[in-house]
Amino acid sequence: MISGGPAAMQLGRVRASLLDFYITESDELIVEPVSGSSLKEEHTAILLEWARTVGYERIWLPDQVIDIEAEPAIVGVAKVNCRTCGAHWQDSSTDFWLKVRDNGFFPASCPACGDSLPEMTVEAEEAEDSDEADQAQARLAS
């Protein structure tokens, strides 16, 4: 009988939506719940905002296909703290956002210790110059 470890976890108690993501050749995101799990309604809006932020324009959910606005999400400051070494990382540069949009996800590992990072949070950033903000948005949209 299994008494510990991941195999003993009962998915019915999990409040999170456990999902597999697949990226198509045309950079669309396909979302499938892990066996025994489901995509909870309250998590759909969070998932769509994340997909828009990292640059997807279409997301395939188990029960629907959603076209996300073609214009990029507002660029801001992405921040995260490493749970292992405590390092704080943040970036708002155009190069960072271009890499995130090209990859389709935020950096997954800590540059200092190499351990997994939690998902980054994004805070809106006020541009010092509106022309600079427009140029950054145009580079991300292309």
Can you describe this structure?
The chain is α+β, with helices and mostly antiparallel strands and 142 residues long. The chain has helices spanning 41-53, 94-103, 130-141, and strands spanning 19-23, 29-33, 58-60, 65-67, 76-81, 88-91, 121-124. The strands form two sheets. Strands 1-2-3-4 form a four-stranded mixed sheet, with no helix packed on it. A hairpin with a 6-residue loop joins strand 5 (76-81) and strand 6 (88-91). The longest helix has 13 residues, at 41-53. The model has no long low-confidence stretch (mean pLDDT 79).
The SSE string, one letter per element, is EEHEEEEHEH
Number of domains: 2
Q: How many beta strands in the DSSP annotation?
A: 7
Q: Beta-sheet strand percentage?
A: 15-25%
Shape: globular
Helix content: 10-25%
Strand order of the largest sheet: 1-2-3-4
pLDDT < 50 stretches: none
Radius of gyration equals 17 Å
Structural class: alpha+beta
Quaternary status:
single chain
Sketch the major β-sheet.
Answer: 4 strands, mixed
Q: Helical segment tally?
A: 3
What key phrases describe this protein's structure?
142 residues; alpha+beta; 2 domains; four-stranded mixed sheet; three-stranded antiparallel sheet; 3 helices; 7 strands; 21% strand
In brief, what are we looking at here?
The protein is an alpha+beta fold and 142 residues long. Helices cover 25% and strands 21% of the residues. The chain folds into two domains: 16-67, no CATH class; 76-141, no CATH class.
Set down the secondary structure blueprint:
Elements: E1 19-23, E2 29-33, H1 41-53, E3 58-60, E4 65-67, E5 76-81, E6 88-91, H2 94-103, E7 121-124, H3 130-141
Parallel strand pairs: 2-3
Antiparallel strand pairs: 1-2, 3-4, 5-6, 5-7
